[in-house]
Design a protein that fits this description.
Helix content: 10-25%
Number of domains: 1
Shape: globular
Low-confidence stretches: none
Structural class: mainly beta
Number of helices: 1
Radius of gyration: 11 Å
Number of strands: 6
Length: 74
């Protein structure tokens, strides 16, 4: 997978978040795969060989957590 550098993270998440209730990029979340707490704005985006993009844990590629693995804090 290839990492894509996102300049406007708020815009990207507004347009690509796959679920309802888009989180604020300043909100804290926990990745259930690596048990790391971070702010939404720290996410990374990766593109696979088919061109699909995935919003991932900031510890990727060492952590395979994606947006579905986020647990809100607070």
């Amino acid at each position: 997978m290839e990492e894509i550098i996102i300049i406007d993270k708020q815009k990207y998440i507004n347009e690509n978040y796959p679920f309802g209730n888009i989180p604020e990029i300043t909100s804290e979340i926990c990745c259930i795969h690596c048990d790391t707490i971070y702010k939404v704005e720290e996410y990374k985006v990766f593109r696979d060989e088919d061109g699909d993009e995935f919003i991932c844990c900031p510890n990727a590629p060492d952590c395979d957590g994606t947006v579905i693995d986020w647990i809100p804090i607070g």
